[in-house]
Write a structure and sequence with these properties.
The chain has about 350 residues and is mostly helical. About 50% of the residues lie in helices and about 0% in strands. The protein has helices spanning about 1-25, 30-35, 40-45, 60-75, 80-90, 120-135, 140-155, 175, 185-195, 200-210, 240-250, 270-275, 285, 295-305, 305-320, 325-330, and strands at about 215, 255-260. Strands 1-2 form a two-stranded antiparallel ribbon. It is globular. The termini are far apart. The protein binds protoporphyrin IX containing FE (HEM). Protoporphyrin IX containing FE binds next to α5, α10 and β1.
């Protein structure tokens, strides 16, 4: 009885949070009052984004991008997850400014932390086609966010509308790529990282749900399997059977293993159900079900698939609207996504 009560309460709270965040995304003044913490340098540029920006200057931009993403994902379905991750890594450093795409020496992309990122060739293919149709018009940052949305849809996830007008940044530094969480952080670290971008705990738990698809290199998880934190024992928060599976699967650091062991190719809530069974691949996934600040949210999302997909859209819009004042002020529309214009 009390179990049902608790669940009902959590669901009500989440539904309210969801409704507030939906109405907030449609109501800029409410959005300002909800920001945690208030990051004025991040928010002012969001007002410059517009749904109709390319209506006259590049009318079929979304159609062209969707067709390209579909073509590439049909050829290689593993790309969908990689494209969603690429967008997260872009927005995590200097906002969503395509700084992750620059490939000069010492750029974010060249950093060790970026070495398993994929999908760059697809962005270049789209950019080339767009430069033919509407030269110097569509930013690489806008392409990245649209690609991430379309990849989500093609993986069976939700659709959301995207306002456009992000500028491409001119700075990209390898040491900044190391700030993106890599799976060994504490929940406090993650909450602080998300808050520094204007994202809250609900966004953290919901966006972590992107790990319902895709893979990780074994390199990111091997430390959990044998000698966790110098104990000569595995991470105690891994289910024993799952541990055996991971030890067999991860003999080599370069092997890949699914982030969602149960339904790795379906965009569903199974990721959260796995956490209940101690089957989170990354330590940061599993911790979402251990920490009292995140567990009630993970719990509710595990059996409310419409809540997950609705809130995933809302949180992805927030992620895609992280803009850094400096990158935007000094930004440009790159002609080649891999290089600054001059
Ligand atoms: C909350 C903090 C997060 C941490 C600690 C984290 C960490 C990781 C790690 C370690 C990997 C595997 C890297 C490797 O190949 O070794 C990964 C993969 C992935 N991440 Fe995250 N991530 C986080 C948040 C996010 C967010 C917010 C998104 C998107 C909204 C996301 C989407 C993905 C996807 C889709 C993959 C699979 C990529 C592929 O199959 O190529 N992650 N993440």
């Amino acid at each position: 009885m009390s179990m049902t009560m608790t669940t009902t309460t959590i669901l009500s709270v989440l539904s309210i949070l969801f409704l507030v965040s939906v109405s907030a995304s449609n109501n800029p003044s409410l959005l300002h009052s909800l920001k945690v913490p208030s990051l004025s340098h991040l928010s002012s540029f969001q007002d410059d984004l517009s749904y109709s920006l390319y209506h006259t200057t590049c009318p079929d931009v979304e159609g062209l991008i969707y067709r390209k993403v579909k073509e590439w994902v049909n050829k290689d379905p593993t790309l969908a997850a990689s494209l969603i991750r690429l967008h997260f890594h872009d927005c995590s450093v200097r906002g969503c400014d395509a700084s992750i795409l620059l490939d000069h020496n010492g750029s974010e992309r060249s950093a060790n932390a970026s070495k398993s990122l994929r999908g760059f060739h697809l962005i270049n293919d789209i950019k080339k086609a767009l430069e033919k149709k509407c030269p110097k018009t569509v930013s690489c940052a806008d392409i990245l966010t649209t690609v991430a949305r379309d990849a989500t849809v093609l993986a069976g996830g939700p659709f959301w509308m995207i306002p456009f007008g992000r500028k491409d940044g001119r700075v990209s530094l390898a040491n900044e790529a190391a700030m993106v969480p890599m799976g060994r952080e504490t929940i406090t670290n993650l909450i602080q990282f998300f808050q520094s971008k204007g994202l809250n705990v609900l966004d953290l738990v919901v966006l972590s749900g992107a790990h319902t698809i895709g893979r990780s290199t074994c390199e990111s998880v091997q430390y959990r399997l044998y000698d966790y934190k110098g104990t000569k024992k595995p991470d105690p928060s891994i289910d024993p059977q799952y541990l055996n599976y991971l030890r067999r699967k991860c003999r080599w650091a370069s092997e890949n293993v699914y982030l969602d062991a149960t339904t790795p190719k379906k965009f569903d809530t199974q990721y959260y159900q796995n956490l209940k069974k101690k089957m989170g691949l990354l330590s940061t996934d599993q911790l979402l079900y251990v920490d009292s600040r995140t567990r009630p949210i993970a719990d509710a999302l595990s059996f409310e698939s419409s809540l997950f997909s609705n809130q995933f859209s809302v949180s992805m819009v927030k992620l895609a609207n992280i803009l850094d004042a400096k990158s935007q002020d000094n930004g440009e529309i790159r002609v080649n996504c891999n290089r600054v214009n001059y």
